[in-house]
Amino acid sequence: MTKSIFIVGSGLVGQATGKGLVTKGFKVTFIDVRTAIVNQLRQQGYEAFEVSEVKKPDAEIFMLSTPTYSLNQNRNRSGLDFIKQAATSIGSWLSKTDKYCLVVVRSTVLPGTTQEIVIPILEEYSGKNAGRDFGVCMNPEYLRERCDEEDFSNPWIVVIGELDRQSGDLLEEVYQWVNCPVYRIPIKEAEIQKFIHNLCNAAKISFFNEVRLVCQRIGLDCEKIFPLVAQSAEAIWNPLYGTRDLGPFGGSCLPKDTIAFLSWAKEQGMETPLTDAVLKVNETVKKRLELVTSKVSRS
């Protein structure tokens, strides 16, 4: 089992990951650019250093967990300044070791980031080649802020986006202790999976917020209605509902009832932009499918 891990970026995700790995027997070193964070971790009994203090790192795995895509960032910036700086530091550290190391991106990044931005920086500053001299994985986190350390120690899923088999094998060794499914997929798929994970949660919250406003407008009690929906709607109790490539929704209920609800809400003077978008997306998928079918039939 790999024992020495550097957590590069010691915020919420980095600390939950590193502290959890310590309890599993790994030798963990926290790295950060913030003096206050480093001092706090030292006071808690952990090994921690500022980036400038690391000369020759003794690590086999570097887990990169820096912040990305701030809400208030300048529109002309990519939101990847911190991860680029971290990759630069890791690349220079890789140049000083003869060991085959693994770099793991834990930060949430858009598809293509690891292979188009992070790996080129690592290769430039290390003078080595990814997939030959060092491994690379993308390992999305699913940590809730209110219970991040508990979530890391009791994961319900582990996803490993691997550059190659050797990279994936090394990271899977780190997760030998988990009692949940471990899935290994390509890096870009792991990157977008995390974004879809977040978007799914955001869309569900907004949907229920939208229909809550409708119910409140006509004096109905959502606390009685929504728990029943959670039991009756297959889209909630069947986790795979809607995820298969079966085209637009149809049948005798969904299209007509969606249209009827939208018409009624409009008559009541209520805005339902999310439900309206649901119908528009369905029509877009339907038209594209009809276009593909038409091209196939002509050929």
Explain briefly what this protein structure is:
Helix content is 51%, strand content 13%. The protein has 299 residues and is an alpha/beta fold. It has an eight-stranded mixed β-sheet, sandwiched between helices.
Structural class: alpha/beta
How many whole angstroms does the radius of gyration measure?
Answer: 24 Å
Tally of extended strands?
A: 8
| Through-space gap between termini | 56 Å
The SSE order reads EHEHEEHEHEHEHEHHHHH
Overall pLDDT: 93
Largest sheet: 8 strands, mixed
- What would you say the CATH architecture of the largest domain is? 3-Layer(aba) Sandwich
Number of discrete helical segments: 11
Keywords:
Rossmann fold; 2 domains; alpha/beta; 11 helices; 8-stranded mixed beta sheet; elongated; 299 residues; 13% strand
Secondary structure layout:
Elements: E1 4-8, H1 12-23, E2 27-32, H2 35-43, E3 47-50, E4 61-64, H3 81-94, E5 101-105, H4 113-126, E6 134-138, H5 148-153, E7 158-162, H6 165-174, E8 182-186, H7 187-217, H8 222-232, H9 234-237, H10 254-267, H11 273-298
Parallel strand pairs: 1-2, 1-4, 2-3, 4-5, 5-6, 7-8
Antiparallel strand pairs: 6-7
Q: In words, what does this structure look like?
A:
With 299 residues, the chain is an alpha/beta fold. The protein has 2 domains: 4-187, Rossmann fold, CATH 3.40.50.720; 245-299. 51% of the residues lie in helices and 13% in strands. It has helices at residues 12-23, 35-43, 81-94, 113-126, 148-153, 165-174, 187-217, 222-232, 234-237, 254-267, 273-298; strands spanning 4-8, 27-32, 47-50, 61-64, 101-105, 134-138, 158-162, 182-186. It has an 8-stranded mixed β-sheet with strand order 3-2-1-4-5-6-7-8, with helices on both faces. It is elongated, with a radius of gyration of 24 Å.
